[in-house]
């Protein structure tokens, strides 16, 4: 992976990283990487050691990642939203030589390991110290393609994130897939073409964030970060100020930006591509995006993938999305996808085999206390079992739900995603979450939390009648919660069904 810096060497004069008023060119980043790598080396970081990044998006995060790889270290992308026990568990499993952390997250590191913490503000001083030449560094250590390069933690919502190991081969193979799919192989990039400006509104510690970072590096493009947590108004401000051309988001983030009252007065003409992933994308949302971002009408895209597969598995854009609005797209060039144990409708578990997939978990999944264990998801034939439900039709993948997110009502399996998709077709419905509530007779009953469009006057009986046209009797919600306020979401952008389920009994009482 460190050799990717050499491939980006031709872009030295271009601006690469922006956050607020800060701007770093490729040349400035390369020099900063060498300075920070020298400091990390002086602090004891060596090839094969673990460097844990535990900080929000910033140029220092990016530079520290490259500095660790420059020294041959394995860089672990810690989740910036972890609680103290999960940070302690990660430190216990990884045994990092160094931990990059801001003040807030440094306090979560166990006291016995705090001497390993390097503060973000200290790295900022090294980055800004442009008058000091770094000590000479040896070339990056040689690495076999299956040697670990990065560790990315799955964004678990139940307290059990898993440290996914991606080898150098995994990262490079996924990058090749994306570049071939988009027609942007480095040798095909016109050096005279103005650089794209990408807004990274999601966290860098997710696989999608790493993908965005690497694509911007090789393409000679500018990557813009928000300051602080996700905020729809700031997204709109940044798009206007920096003339953003590409924006990647999860559907909930996109929806919240579209709902901001200032949208009608904004100049969003610079945006030519909007890419969504992380959750199923509804056709109605795509149409709303096309209206608000008119110059991105042909540049809408959706991707499907997961951390354990090394990133993107399938993608759809342009004509494909217009003709098949509910598809996740076609598998990427060297990705094998099949459906395991399909039912009569062709739905079954999506299983994947790709050179980009993980080599396994580092020490097993964490349980929040430092305990590690649990089987890998890769079967003896090399297939990754995603836990997602879907079907393949004419070479296109359709994701229809989660195998593990099923509601089991009286012995009948119900995919919440299917019920949600039906309800989202109603013009009065802006967002919906379907979940199972305990039932003393049936085991679980179907419940729907519906966020209505402002001013909508639809009733529960009307929604029930609408759903009855497309849902089997056992799939229809037995309980409703109609509301106008947005549904709660995790910082990853996915609906927080755990909170909704916990709040439901209190609401009923």
Spans of at least 5 consecutive residues with low confidence: 155-159, 367-374
The CATH topology name of the domain at 1-14 and 26-143 reads: Rossmann fold
The percent of residues in helical segments reads: 25-40%
> Shape, please?
globular
Query: What about the largest sheet?
Result: 9 strands, mixed
Structural class by helix and strand composition: alpha/beta
Total strands: the figure is: 25
Q: Supply the CATH architecture of the domain at 1-14 and 26-143.
A: 3-Layer(aba) Sandwich
The DSSP helix count reads 15
Instruction: Say what oligomer this is.
Output: single chain
Strand order of the largest sheet: 2-1-10-9-11-12-13-14-15
Keywords:
seven-stranded mixed beta sheet, 15 helices, alpha/beta, ANL_N_sf, GMP Synthetase, Chain A, domain 3, Class I adenylate-forming enzyme family protein, AMP-binding_CS, 509 residues, Rossmann fold
Structural commentary:
The protein has 509 residues and is α/β, with parallel strands linked by helices. Among the domains are: 132 residues, 3-Layer(aba) Sandwich (Rossmann fold), CATH 3.40.50.980; 103 residues, ANL, C-terminal domain (GMP Synthetase, Chain A, domain 3, 2-Layer Sandwich). The chain contains 15 helices and 25 strands. A nine-stranded mixed β-sheet has the order 2-1-10-9-11-12-13-14-15, sandwiched between helices. Strands 6-5-3-4-7-8-18 form a seven-stranded mixed β-sheet, sandwiched between helices. Strands 16-17-19-20 form a four-stranded antiparallel β-sheet. Helix 3 links the parallel strand 3 and strand 4. The N and C termini lie far apart (56 Å). About 3% of the residues have low confidence.
């Amino acid at each position: 992976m460190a050799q990717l810096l050499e491939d980006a060497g031709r872009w030295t004069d271009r601006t690469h990283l922006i956050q607020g008023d800060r701007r770093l060119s490729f040349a400035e980043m390369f020099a900063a990487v060498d300075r920070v790598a020298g400091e990390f080396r002086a602090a004891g970081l060596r090839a094969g050691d673990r460097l844990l990044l535990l900080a929000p998006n910033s140029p220092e995060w990016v530079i520290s990642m490259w500095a660790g790889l420059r020294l041959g270290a394995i860089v672990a992308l810690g989740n910036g939203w972890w609680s103290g026990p999960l940070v302690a568990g990660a430190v216990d499993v990884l045994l990092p030589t160094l931990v990059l952390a801001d003040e807030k997250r440094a306090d979560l590191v166990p006291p016995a390991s705090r001497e390993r913490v390097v503060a973000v503000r200290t790295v900022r001083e090294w980055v800004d110290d442009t008058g000091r030449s770094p000590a000479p560094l040896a070339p990056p250590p040689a690495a076999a393609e299956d040697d670990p390069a990065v560790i990315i933690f799955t964004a678990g919502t139940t307290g059990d994130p898993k440290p996914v190991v991606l080898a150098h081969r995994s990262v490079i193979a996924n990058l090749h897939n994306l570049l071939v799919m988009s027609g942007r192989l480095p040798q095909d990039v016109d050096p005279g073409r103005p650089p794209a400006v990408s807004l990274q509104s999601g966290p860098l510690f997710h696989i999608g964030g790493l993908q965005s970072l690497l694509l911007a590096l090789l393409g000679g493009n500018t990557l813009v970060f928000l300051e602080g947590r996700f905020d729809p108004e700031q997204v709109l401000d940044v798009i206007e100020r920096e003339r953003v051309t590409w924006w990647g988001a999860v559907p909930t983030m996109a929806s919240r930006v579209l709902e901001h009252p200032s949208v009608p007065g904004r100049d969003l003409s610079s945006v030519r591509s909007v890419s969504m992933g992380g959750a199923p994308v509804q056709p109605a949302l795509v149409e709303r995006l096309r209206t608000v971002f008119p110059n991105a009408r042909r540049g809408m895209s959706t991707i499907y993938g997961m951390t354990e597969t090394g990133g993107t598995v399938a993608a759809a854009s342009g004509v494909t999305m217009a003709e098949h609005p509910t598809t996740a797209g076609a598998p990427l060039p060297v990705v094998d996808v099949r459906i395991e144990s399909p039912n009569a409708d062709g739905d079954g578990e999506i299983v994947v085999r790709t050179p980009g997939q993980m080599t396994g978990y580092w020490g097993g999944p964490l349980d929040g206390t430092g305990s590690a264990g649990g089987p890998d998801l890769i079967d003896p034939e090399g297939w990754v079992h995603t836990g997602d439900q879907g079907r393949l039709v004419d070479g296109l993948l359709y994701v229809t739900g989660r195998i593990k997110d099923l509601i089991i009502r009286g012995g009948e399996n119900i995919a919440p995603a299917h019920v949600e998709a039906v309800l989202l077709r109603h013009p009065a419905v802006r967002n919906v979450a379907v979940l199972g509530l305990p039932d003393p007779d049936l085991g679980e009953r179907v419940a729907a939390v519906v966020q209505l469009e402002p001013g909508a006057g639809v009733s529960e009986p009307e929604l029930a009648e609408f759903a009855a046209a497309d849902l089997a009797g056992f799939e229809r919600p037995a309980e409703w919660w109609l509301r106008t306020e947005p549904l709660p979401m995790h910082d990853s952008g996915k609906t927080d069904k755990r909170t909704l389920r916990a709040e439901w009994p209190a609401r009923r009482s």
